[in-house]
Design goal:
The complex is a heterodimer of chains A (401) and B (413). Chain A is mainly α and 401 residues long. Chain A folds into 2 domains: 3-164, no CATH class; 184-396, MetI-like fold (Orthogonal Bundle), CATH 1.10.3720.10. Chain A contains 18 helices and 2 strands. Chain A has helices spanning 7-34, 42-56, 60-76, 89-110, 121-155, 159-164, 181-189, 192-223, 229-239, 244-258, 264-289, 292-300, 305-316, 318-334, 337-342, 351-358, 365-385, 387-396, and strands at residues 38-40, 81-83. Chain A has a two-stranded antiparallel sheet. Chain A is flat. Chain A starts with 6 loop residues before the first helix and ends in a 5-residue tail after the last helix. In chain B, strand 1 and strand 2 form a beta hairpin. With 413 residues, chain B is an alpha+beta fold. Chain B has 13 helices and 8 strands. In chain B, helix 3 (186-216) packs parallel to helix 8 and helix 3 (186-216) runs antiparallel to helix 10 (321-350). The two termini of chain B are 55 Å apart. Chain B is elongated and about 120 Å long. Chain B has a 4-stranded antiparallel beta sheet, with no helix packed on it. In chain B, strands 5-6-3-8 form a 4-stranded antiparallel beta sheet, with no helix packed on it. The chains are: A mainly alpha (401), B alpha+beta (413). The interface between A and B is large, with 104 and 98 residues.
Chain lengths: 401, 413
């Protein structure tokens, strides 16, 4: 351990690891962007990375010199990343240039405090942490983005192109609107317009019904004193833990017998009940946090309890209501199991059920992915637009998923 | 003079408050008991019943009426025929009786001994039917003048009555479902898979969440964007991301395979979701990928509320970054980590959609929840499905007891 804590050991080791990380990243990114065969060479990337790390100890000039050298080596063909024949010169220059640039930038940041001599434990650990941080950003961003990137790009291509080179996600922009033909077909031939509308109004109704039930319930649990209050707030959480699949079976039977299966009405009845416990749990936490004095003042001035809730508590808890609504909307929008079990009639599908029906060998892949994008985009837009509320809603909404 | 006595018991104000509370809670209570408590009881009930998907409709007698021969002029003869059967192959129907309007002006020949015509109605009594019973009634008829004024012999629908036992409401119980569920090595395999998926999925998501939270626990430009981005997997509809993963890891046209082959990591195409034990690892990875944002969000919220003075004091004492993490941050986070672990454990245990969409429970990924679906719908044995559901519920109760013990110590989230 002690030998590691010397500048001339730490710097090359971290530099080598960092260069390898960047080589893999750039190779994957270049492959996905151009479809050209790029691949990292593990041994070479470790060696040249060590060189860059070592150079970083001798100041900025040495570092950039080393980076330039690595870029040049890459174009010649013995760099940290290898590229197959027939790759265009532009792609080569961009790929190897980016690799050298990011390796050098990272190395500079990571090895900021490194000197040639012995390092203190503090300096050494800081460098390691900076390396891990850089790696973490790349890693998390990559694993989050890649599936979504594949989803969007696949929806813009056609089956033959996909089979020919599964890595080539470059799109032909000259097609113009032709790129979006999967979406057009889904909307016109597969009825996704109506699914979108069904999903939307089912979700909105779910939010409204949930709030209508959860607000009074949450207020009672949070503010009013009655026997069994503690037991009640506990059983909310317990109910919240009952898995849907256990309930889905009898609900399926009951709906089959009463003819509620295959109706939007049935779905609108059942969705709110799955979300009421969550909403109640979130809201009661918020209500508890409101100062009781304001409400008491209202009571003293002659308002009834219900008026107090309406005129004082609710206006004060608008932010919480927004988070809860968003969270419930998200649950209803993304709900799959019940829609899948209870809806068979294509004219009544929700979006998730509609996508499930696209999963057959007769429907081309890009349609399936276009459907996935159609379902994902509205919730993402809503989420990014109201991220502040959403994060709050999620943290308050406990850990259901 | 009387002594002032403090009031005992609940006063009228407290009573009114309690009444209001119950009034406000009533709609929720009613809805929840209707859709949660009642179905739960139904699951218990069904799990002791020999009921298949086909038994959901109780057996009914079915009749078809037709006329053989033409009735065109008065005096023509034909045969009126009723064909009857029991809709169920194995359930009996008791006291089956047929009743049909007898057309005016139609003269019946020799009648079946079980039938009679009175006051313009034909009625037949068949007694009890076994499962799969079939009957045929033939009545030779002759038309008279009056017949042709009426709507015809087959115009009115015959009515059939019969008492059938619906297996759902009968008091016939069996332990066969449970015997079937626990029978053989399959159950233990399913339980093993469930535990692997639950434990590693939960731990993985927790560790990844901790890592991501540490990355974002500092303010820099773009922190908000990254935080939003890292929540994507959780916010997107499960069906969308599950299909994206399936496509990404497709053995024939998936980018992941192409990438691995190009990078020289693997020789040929790997069937990620179709091979044991790779499929199980993949669904666990998916679970980690999809739910690390949640742990990340909670851990980040807790991290940001840790008092900063402590770190300054540690700096003064010369603590290194790793020491600060190990001796200061981690103990502070232990509470939220244990609560998250327990809650996520329970919910991962309950997870159905993800595995169902990714593999359908094939290739050694069948967990208990998927087994419920498999038994009830794929094998059409609702009783066995309910029995698995009961097993899940029992496990869940066990976890919850444990959870509330820890939870009350940690004072909630």
């Amino acid at each position: 351990m002690k030998t590691l804590r010397h500048g001339y050991v730490t710097a090359p080791v971290l530099g080598a690891l960092w260069c390898f990380v960047i080589a893999v990243t750039v190779a994957v990114a270049m492959s996905f962007a151009t479809g050209a065969p790029f691949r990292p060479s593990p041994i070479l990337s470790l060696i040249w990375g060590a060189g860059i790390g070592f150079a970083a100890l001798f100041g900025v000039v040495a570092l950039w010199g080393a980076a330039l050298a690595v870029a040049a080596l890459g174009i010649v063909g013995i760099g940290p990343m290898a590229s197959g024949d027939g790759t265009s010169l532009v792609a080569l220059a961009v790929g190897h240039g980016a690799l050298a640039l990011f390796t050098a930038l990272g190395a500079r940041k990571i090895l900021e405090e490194c000197r040639i001599g012995a390092l203190t434990r503090h300096e050494f650990e800081e460098a390691v942490i900076r390396f891990l941080t850089g790696f973490g950003y790349i890693f998390f961003t990559a694993i989050v983005l890649i599936p979504f990137y594949v989803m969007v790009m696949t929806s813009l291509k056609n089956q033959a192109e996909l089979m020919a080179n599964p890595l080539d996600f470059s799109i032909d922009l000259t097609q113009g609107w032709g790129l979006l033909r999967s979406y057009g077909e889904l909307m016109t031939e597969y009825g996704f317009g109506s699914y979108l509308w069904t999903s939307f109004y089912v979700s909105v109704l779910t939010v409204l019904i949930t709030l209508a039930f959860a607000i009074p319930g949450a207020y009672a649990v949070a503010r009013l004193r009655f026997r069994g209050q503690a037991l009640f707030s506990r059983s909310i959480l317990l109910i919240y833990m009952v898995p849907m699949i256990v309930l889905a079976l009898p609900i399926y039977i009951a709906f089959s017998m009463t003819g509620l299966r295959n109706t939007i009405f049935g779905i609108v009845i059942i969705y709110p009940v799955t979300t009421i416990p969550v909403a109640l749990y979130m809201l009661q936490g918020y209500f508890r946090g409101l100062p009781a004095e304001i409400e008491e003042a209202g009571l003293m001035d002659g308002l009834s309890r219900l008026k107090v809730i309406w005129k004082i508590t609710l206006p004060l808890s608008l932010p919480a209501l927004a988070s809860v609504s968003l969270y419930v909307f998200m649950i209803a929008w993304n709900e799959f199991l019940l829609a899948f079990m209870l809806l068979d009639d294509p004219s009544k599908f929700t979006l998730t059920r509609g996508i499930a029906s696209l999963n057959s060998s007769e429907v081309p892949r890009q349609h399936l992915m276009a459907g996935a994008v159609i379902a994902t985009v509205p919730i993402m837009v809503l989420f990014l637009g109201l991220e502040r509320f959403m994060t709050k809603g999620l943290t308050a909404g406990s850990v259901k998923g | 003079m009387t002594d002032a006595v403090p009031p005992t018991g609940t006063g009228p104000l407290a009573k009114r408050e309690a009444r209001l509370a119950w009034g406000l809670l009533f709609p929720t209570l009613a809805a929840v008991s209707l859709v949660v408590i009642l179905p739960l009881m139904a699951v218990f009930w069904i799990s002791f019943k020999p009921v298949g998907l086909a038994n959901l409709r109780p057996p009914t007698p079915i009749v078809r009426e037709d006329i053989r021969g033409d009735l065109e002029a008065p005096g023509d003869a034909a045969t009126l025929r009723y064909r009857l059967r029991n809709s169920s192959q194995d359930q009996p129907i008791l006291g089956v009786a047929l009743s049909d309007a007898w057309p005016e002006g139609l003269e019946a020949g020799e009648l079946d001994p079980r039938c009679a015509i009175a006051e313009g109605r034909l009625s037949c009594d068949f007694g009890d039917w076994e499962g799969g019973a079939r009957e045929q009634i033939r009545i030779p008829v002759t038309a008279t003048e009056a017949y042709f004024a009426g709507p015809g012999a087959t115009a009115s629908d015959p009515a059939l009555t019969g008492q059938a036992q619906n297996v759902l409401t009968s008091f016939e119980f069996t332990l066969e479902n449970f015997a079937q569920v626990f029978d053989g090595s399959e159950f233990w395999a399913v339980l093993g898979v469930t535990l692997f998926y639950t434990i590693f999925g939960t731990l993985g998501a927790l560790i990844m969440g901790l890592f991501a939270a540490m990355l974002l626990n500092k303010s820099f430009k773009g922190q908000g964007i990254l935080r939003g981005l890292y929540l994507f997997p959780y916010v997107a509809p499960v069906i969308a991301v599950a299909f994206a993963w399936i496509l990404l890891f497709d053995p024939f046209s998936g980018s992941a395979n192409a990438l691995l082959i190009q990078m020289g990591v693997s020789e040929g195409a790997i069937n990620f979701f179709g091979e044991r034990p790779l499929a199980l690892i993949m669904v666990t990875l998916f679970e980690i990928w999809r739910y690390f944002p949640l742990s990340f969000l909670f851990i980040l919220a807790r991290m940001q509320s840790i008092d900063h003075d402590m770190y300054e004091a540690a700096d003064m004492d010369g603590a290194s970054p790793f020491q600060k993490f190990w001796y200061l941050s981690l103990p502070q986070l232990l509470g939220i980590l244990s609560v998250l672990f327990l809650l996520r454990f329970i919910w991962t245990f309950n997870k159905f959609d993800d595995i169902f969409l990714l593999t359908g429970g094939n290739a050694g990924t069948r967990v208990l929840t998927v087994n419920v679906y498999e038994q009830a719908f794929a094998l059409s044995n609702i009783g066995a499905g309910a029995a698995v559901a009961v097993v899940i519920f029992a496990c869940l109760l066990l976890f919850s007891l444990f959870f509330f013990k820890v939870m009350s110590r940690e004072e909630g989230l």
